[in-house]
Amino acid sequence: MRTQPAQARAGTGGRRRSGRDSRRGRRGPRRSWAQRLRRIGLAVGVVSLGGPLIVVLLLRWIPPPTTAFMLQSAQAHAEAPDWTGTGYRWTAWDDIAPFAGLAVIAAEDQRFPEHHGFDVDAIRAALDDAMQGERLRGASTISQQTVKNLFLWPGRSAVRKGLEAALTLLLELCWSKRRILEVYLNIAEFGDGLFGVTAASERFFGKRPADLGPDEAARLAAVLPNPARLRADRPSRYVRARQRWIRNQMDRLGGVALIEALEAR
Question: Within 13 Å of residue 134, how many CA atoms lie on the same side as its CB?
Fold first, then answer.
């Protein structure tokens, strides 16, 4: 039987190795592209999470220069001849009457000192009412409203709600309850295009926010559900009734002792 020469066998082996090498070469770029895609995905994830984290951390100490809602309001009112601007002017916590914070807690989020950004009981109650045929009502906390006013836009899309939930968790992790309430009081809309407790107290009552009394604070909080239609300077019967309810809730919650407890945290 004729045997194959050694060189031929070596050549065959060489060709086989060359084939394997070529297959490795073809797989190599695929691995390289997969690694690049993974790195790009990681970089995008770091930027998408790191960017908001940096902003939230900065706003823990720095007053926000503006908000998403203020910019949208300015755009909407840009052509109105009598519009004079948002009126936004930052006021520190110590220069705001404690009744103002107490009133918005009584009106908007009575579990604010205890929850971690979401009022689960309020969400469950709202869903139960909706399942029984009632109109779906909001169950947003002060933390959620702060996030929405600062960073987002009106609406109830799944994308916006998802962003709101993620940013609310971030806010609760990075800020104290006192800081959340301080920012909310400064950026909440108290009239059509009028933002912040300072602008509202000066416009409607002719006084500094430090001088607000409990009844005035309750009236400002009464318009928060719809500041474009409800008026603190010309209160309707509904606003008056809501003001009285808020005032009673402020007492039921323990008065300004609730705010003093937030300060101590």
Answer: 10
* Burial letters 180-218, b for 16+ CB under 10 A, else e: bbbbbbbbbbbbbbbbbbbbbbbebbeeebeebebebbb
Greatest Cα pair distance in the chain: 115
pTM equals: 0.78
Helix (H) or strand (E) holding 194: strand 194-195
pLDDT digits (tens, 9 = 90+) for 150-169: 999 887 778 888 889 999 99
Contacts of 72 (CB under 8 A, 6+ apart): 153, 154
| Dist CA 71 CA 242 (whole Å) | 29
Q: What is the pLDDT of residues 10-48, one digit of tens each?
A: 444 444 555 555 554 455 555 577 666 666 554 444 444
